[in-house]
């Protein structure tokens, strides 16, 4: 009996001491939940794979004491239907911000309706919706880069490479015979990159002759295949391969390396992105240059905007273009 009493007294005293101690301390601010739903058009895309790795890191870093962060990732593997379903699942699971990399960039209406009904803001990224769609609701944003700038920079660096080496015009006719490997039709980065690269080269005084133009959908294997088909027609006549991204430039290099042409008959290859393999190819001297598509900057902008959207604080510190767009600058990369 006595023992029990002493024990109860002890517990009581301990509790008092603990409570007194706690009173003096400041209570930590309540952590907010950032539950980010990320929908990707196709994770086997090299650039997207790297961008998403970077986003995971950024979201994790932004957490700190302030946020409890969770990221749920879905891969639509090239189907808009699948992506619409995945976005619904993400919303049902309780995501409070969505990052959407549309499959069909002209077809976001279903996703926008779902998000609006549930009041979940969307940050679109990399595949840019048309302005009319972004205007459908005030909680829609876009993070990406300016296609025109990347094309211009690709043209500039290619002009520098050509002007520095007269051997690139192998047949010495004063013109550069070239082929274009283009990204997906309808993608904001495909046609605009090509147009601006070609126009910039011309404006720098390079005379061009287009031999062929192929769509390879950003994909290395498709680019290799397209290049192999072009070979039968133009074999060693090509002096420049302009590719809308690094993976397609690398596919073209794969085709040349498998052919029986000697290195001296290889054209100049240029890409865009600065993916890990792309940068390695520049370092190895296989790619004459690339234009860095700032995936880390894009990932950071997305993570920060997501945090602001959840907390409701700091919106005034984000620099938007036209209230909704964040564009990260490109930069030229040569060896
Ligand atoms: C990148 C490509 C990528 C595409 C996917 C472009 O901005 O340059 O490498 O395949 O986005 O949407
Ligand atoms: Ca020539």
Shape: elongated
- The name of the CATH architecture of the largest domain is 3-Layer(aba) Sandwich
Overall pLDDT level:
92
**Approximate strand percentage:** 15-25%
Number of strands: 12
- H/E element string? HEHEHEHEHEHEHEHEHEHEHEE
Q: Output the number of helix runs.
A: 11
List of distinct ligands in this structure: beta-D-glucopyranose, calcium ion
Tell me the helix content: 40-55%
Fourth CATH level, the homologous superfamily of the largest domain: Response regulator
Derived structural class: alpha/beta
CATH class membership of the largest domain: Alpha Beta
**Total number of distinct structural domains:** 2
What's the alpha carbon Rg, rounded to whole Å? 26 Å
With strands numbered from the N-terminus, the spatial order across the biggest sheet is 2-1-3-4-5-11
CATH topology of the largest domain: Rossmann fold
Profile the largest sheet: 6 strands, parallel
Cα-to-Cα separation, first versus last residue: 85 Å
Given as residue ranges, the uncertain stretches (5+ residues, pLDDT < 50) are 13-28
């Amino acid at each position: 009996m006595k023992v029990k009493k002493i024990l109860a007294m002890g517990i009581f005293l301990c509790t008092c001491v603990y409570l007194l101690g706690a009173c003096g301390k400041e209570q930590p601010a309540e952590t907010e939940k950032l539950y980010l739903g990320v929908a990707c058009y196709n994770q086997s895309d090299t650039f997207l794979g790297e961008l998403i790795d970077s986003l995971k890191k950024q979201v994790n870093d932004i957490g700190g004491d302030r946020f409890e962060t969770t990221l749920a990732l879905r891969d639509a593997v090239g189907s808009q239907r699948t992506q619409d379903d995945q976005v619904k699942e993400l919303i049902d699971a309780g995501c409070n911000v969505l990052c959407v990399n549309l499959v069909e960039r002209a077809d976001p209406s279903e996703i926008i309706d779902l998000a609006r009904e549930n009041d979940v803001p969307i940050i679109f990224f990399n595949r840019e919706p048309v302005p009319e769609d972004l205007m459908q609701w005030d909680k829609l944003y876009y993070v990406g880069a300016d296609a025109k700038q990347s094309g211009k920079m690709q043209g500039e660096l290619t002009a520098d490479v050509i002007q520095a080496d007269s051997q690139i015009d192998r047949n010495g006719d004063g013109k550069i015979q070239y082929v274009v490997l283009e990204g997906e039709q309808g993608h904001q980065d495909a046609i605009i990159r090509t147009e601006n690269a070609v126009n910039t080269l011309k404006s720098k005084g390079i005379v061009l002759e287009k031999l062929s133009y192929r769509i390879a959908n950003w994909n290395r294997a498709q680019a290799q295949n397209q290049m192999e088909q072009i070979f039968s027609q133009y074999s060693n006549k090509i002096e420049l391969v302009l590719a809308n991204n690094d993976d397609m430039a690398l596919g073209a290099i794969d085709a040349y390396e498998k052919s029986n042409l000697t290195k001296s008959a290889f054209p100049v290859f240029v890409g865009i992105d600065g993916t890990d393999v792309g940068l390695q190819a520049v370092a190895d001297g296989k790619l004459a240059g690339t234009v860095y598509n700032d995936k880390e900057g894009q990932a950071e902008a997305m993570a920060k905007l997501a945090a602001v959207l959840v907390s409701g604080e700091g919106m005034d510190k984000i620099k938007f273009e036209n209230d909704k767009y964040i564009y990260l600058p490109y930069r030229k990369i040569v060896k």
